[in-house]
# Entry
Amino acid sequence: MDAVLWHPLTSMLFGAFVTWLAARYYFKKAGDELRAEAAALHKATAAIIYCLEHPDAKVEAQRDAQGRITGLIVNMTAHGVMAFSARADLTAAPPSD
# Structure
């Protein structure tokens, strides 16, 4: 009687374990791909916000070999003006001995 009961139960547990291993592999792989896609979307959102905040900036898209946008190239120019002003009072005193 025990052999009749153990064989189906063992087969069912083994099948459940194999199914769990396969599901874990595919869910882990899908989770990793989702994390990578979310990071790319976060980067793209940051680039869009930058373009909206700086409408006068000269922005060029940086692309990879497949043509996907990987970043932004921002051309910037800076100008500076410097001015100095100095004032001094000079007094002469005889040397003290």
Remarks:
- The chain has one domain: 2-75.
- Residues 43 and 71 are 8 Å apart (CA to CA).
- The helical segments are 2-53.
